[in-house]
Amino acid sequence: MKRLKKVLLSAVTLCTIAGAGFIYYVEDQYAGIGLPWTSAIDLPALPDLPKPQKILTEQQSGDIYFPTRSPYDFSELLTNFDNTLEHTGKGSLTLPEGASADNPVPAMIILHGSGGIDPDREPKYAELFAENGIASFVIDYYSVRGSTSDSSYLMKTLSASETDIMVDAYSALKVIGTHPAIDASRIGVTGYSYGGMVTRYTLDARVRNIIAPDIPPFAAHIDVYGPCHQTLGSDQTTGAPYLAIYGDDDNSVDPEVCAQVHNKLADNGPVETFLLPGAGHAWESSRPRDLYEFPYISNCSFSFDEKTGKALINNQPAKTAPAGAGRDERAFARAMVMMDAPQCIKEGYIIGSDKESDTAAKAKMLSFMNKVFKEA
Q1: What is the pTM of this model?
Q2: Looking at the predicted structure, is the pLDDT value of residue 13 above 80?
């Protein structure tokens, strides 16, 4: 039973791409959600939130609520998006000094890692961007789906899938672009770990055309140590510039696999990689740099059928929820998917504070943004 729990924990973690190693306390809380003895997971109820806005005013900053959806499965996004669950999203907007309707500034939408918003990371990037004349919007994709600070890591990561986060990103783009002090043609997206991988997904032209076809696409995509073992099944992009930053001492981000993924994307738009020698994962963290025994995917590929969006493991169909299933059933199927491929799970990668890599990565991000926004 202990081995089964470990595999299922790894399954959920890897379906959400681990997130800077915040899973060390999860197994003790595992039994409370009913795996694997039920066919559904009792996800938290959606909270009551302020009425979402579709248009912003020049004075607005701080918490902003916007309309979004939760398809959960990628197949639902591709084939049934207009019928998926509608609810409210949330993010925090930071404007740089001097931003106004007379002086609209570029902006970056920020996608946090699977552990949630980290005081060492997302708020610090928002401050950095503001210091350099760039607005930011940090999306909180857990709390709007019922998770709280007291929720386990496992429940948080099951409550919001990568598909849900893609929808949040594009839904936020639609709303932030209405802010008079923000230039809608110069809004980019960046994310870290799990959020970094989703940042790459938002390049997908199908996703943009389904969620936000009538507005300018993201002007830039910056993926920071996002793993590359999973793709969306299509290399067609919006054509926007993409930057990937990662280290060669991070087992969760395989440079050879990333090179293959990036080379395919480069056929459809500018792709730049910045490989940091000796860098591990989550170099902004105050956690001491060390080898932590957290799981990651190795020697396996995850993707989706290009037309149906059905999940694939090593090009073979994975277990999925039946048609018409609710989010609870879809969450259970998500947790169980790795039971088909336990050989994909390995453990141990470098995580933690690395000031030299952090400085170099941030300098590269700023240089890339300044170049892209100047040309936009």
Answers
A1: 0.92
A2: no
